[in-house]
């Protein structure tokens, strides 16, 4: 019984130590707090930032959806909300880690902001 208690205690300590120092991905709130003009969108719970400055070759793949709302209000920021892209802008996957927004025939890449 004592051995089971020690094993359980060690397991709990391991879980706590792993989760306490785990980085968290940026949120719309944290990004917009630093830069109110940031060009971001949210997809599948991740924040993506405009990556037009990067020189990455990609191929457009399947349509993921469309921007539902343009807002700079971070509370309630949801999937397919964006700060610069207008409602109705189509979002596509690529053959890379990028997603793209298609605006007037131009493809704008967005890169997920992931910590760690």
TrEMBL record:
<feature type="signal peptide">
    <location>
        <begin position="1"/>
        <end position="22"/>
    </location>
</feature>
<keyword id="KW-0732">Signal</keyword>
<protein>
    <recommendedName>
        <fullName>Lipoprotein</fullName>
    </recommendedName>
</protein>
């Amino acid at each position: 019984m004592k051995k089971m208690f020690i094993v359980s205690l060690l397991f709990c300590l391991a879980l706590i130590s792993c989760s306490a120092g785990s980085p968290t991905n940026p949120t719309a709130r944290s990004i917009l707090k630093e830069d109110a003009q940031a060009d971001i969108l949210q997809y599948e719970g991740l924040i993506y930032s405009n990556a037009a400055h990067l020189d990455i070759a990609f191929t457009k793949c399947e349509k993921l959806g469309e921007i539902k709302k343009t807002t700079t209000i971070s509370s309630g920021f949801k999937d397919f909300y964006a700060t610069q892209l207008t409602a109705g802008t189509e979002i596509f996957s690529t053959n890379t880690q990028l997603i793209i927004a298609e605006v007037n025939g131009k493809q704008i890449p967005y890169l997920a902001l992931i910590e760690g």
